[in-house]
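To: structure subgroup
Subject: Chain for Friday's discussion

All,

I'm putting the inputs and outputs inline so they're searchable in the archive.
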Amino acid sequence: MEELINTLQNQGIEDKSVLEAMRKVDRKDFVPSSFKHRAYMDIPISIGSGQTISQPTVVGLMTQE
């Protein structure tokens, strides 16, 4: 998880409340079991029906704006 947080910071996410929220809300809880091994990668992940869970960097940037 901390590696992902470091990636987010390197991508320009600086708001401490956004970073803390992303630490507390475990992305692993929102991805299908077949993708749990990718939960902390900075990539969108398929959740079925042609939909994806957004890339963490995108979520962080949108949230801090």
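Points worth raising on Friday:
DSSP finds three helices and two strands in the chain.
The longest helix spans residues 2-10.

D.
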